[in-house]
Design brief:
Length: 394
Amino acid sequence: MLIKNVLGPSMLDDLIEEIGNCPYSIIIDESTDPSTQKVLCIIVRFFSFKTRQTVTTFYRLLKLIECDAKTVCDLITDALKKDGLKVENMIGIGVDGANVMVGRHNSVTAILKRELPDLVIVKCVSHSLHLCAEKATELLPRQLEFLVREAHNWFSYSPKRLEYYRALYEIMNGNKDPKKIQALSGTRWLARYQAIQTILEQWEELKLLFSIAKSEDKCYMAEQLYDIMRPFKAFLIFLKNELKTVTQLNLLFQSDNVEPTKLFEDLFLMYKNLLKRIVVPSQLEKLVDSELMDFSFQEHLMHTSSVYLGYDFQIISQELEANDLLDVRERCKNFLCCLAEQIQKRLPDNLSMLKVIANLHPKVATSQVKPDIKPVLNHIQRTDIYGNKNDIES
């Protein structure tokens, strides 16, 4: 009660006073608490003249009755007006990729942009990468998901099995303990990378364990896992290498100590590298980077046998028969195509402007050759908020 009725309101008053008439951005997300009450969390981001730095801090937690775009939008604007913050001072909004947030016509951002036409919208890239990887993996055999999930479940409810495996692992590797296979997460799909990596590191040990359980204990689950492990190692090796790249980029977007203006360059670079692996080189040479955003690459794909799938895959592929290898390569190529297509679809609409903002970095801005920031100035429409464009340029 002390936090809720005394400290909370007092800190909120201090926050509103600190923001004052300054421009600010908000970051919003919906959630459901344990009592099934839907809530909307709002984070505010602004430049504090008091501390002389950009501040990102908690603003409000609002109860939601309906989750449609108009209700969410009204709830946000009513809260801002009630606290004396000008809605027209909002210059940016961060959201997840849900349709109610970023849909083209009647989403929260679409409604706000009617009132604030130069509002900068930034979708959550971590959430988008999660969805891209999930969509692409649907083109790989379903047994992979089963193997990764059930390999964890095999040990999670049986200390006896875990102890037996630990003893087996020590016999095969000396006095070393096996790594725990991570549980899969429904909302954080990229957590699968760690689980896949652990399974591959202990491949022979797990294979032997399931073989023993199949023959001695007549365990049906062990038989299924053993049968899956025999032909699917190539898929797991390929998936591990691809998810590693996506996971590393995802972690960068979740870091506190990174250069924000460089992050979107890294995102675009990953997309460009994907295209280089699946598109005929002569077609890519004709295009500049800005044209890759709308490039219909599906019409210019390499032949499956020409697609390079990584060093580890090349080694393991020597153990496969010709027909099996062709099928594996085709599915892996389809994975890369789908991943590139999904990233292209989910790249921020204002990526070109976000790239230009990198020119405001002190190292660039103080260089002898001044970069062109007209694209940023052209985006600005509310000069009462941002100030005179000539002054900004100066």
